[in-house]
Fold this sequence. Notes:
The protein is of the alpha/beta class. It is 15% helix and 28% strand.
Amino acid sequence: MLTIAILGASGHGKVVAEIAELCGYQKIVFFDDSKDKSKCESWKINGDTDKLVSSLEAFDACIVAIGDNKIRMEKIRLLQSNNAKITSLIHPLASVSKYSVIQKGTVIMANAVINPFATIGISCIINTNSTIEHDCLIGNGVHISPNVAIAGEVSIGSETWIGIGSSVKQNIKIGINVMVGLGSVVINDIPDNAKAFGVPAKIKL
Length: 205
């Protein structure tokens, strides 16, 4: 029986759990740091991060299902330092080129498209119906929201969040820890730590 530990029992965790089942995992075990939760839908929560770290050998794989980019990366680094068997999960209805590179800890959701020679970093969320075109470089801990369209040869820095329904023009460079608001159209580069939104997207101080 293939078992997977999922750290993070939020709504995002539920989606990740279903993808894990579709990928052949027969036993889903949740962990979460909230003291107010004992279950995630029908799945029991078996303890917090410390409990997971102490029981890593019991699982064939583990993944972090936390929407917050910074927290997700903190947890991934902790698990990596404890030699966890971190996996990636790709929904069977996603289209992922054999010429792309998908790093560990990343989740690719239903109807997402990853085209040739795109590279997706560690512990990214590539959400429902999003498109990553050819030769894109997506950094670690990035969240690409549902229905986002990223054109070819775009670079997106680590821990950046691209809001739902946004579009990014080809050859654009988006920095580290950037927030792009929902429905935005990015036609110019965005520096590190900026917030930008609108059509076209403008940086907000």
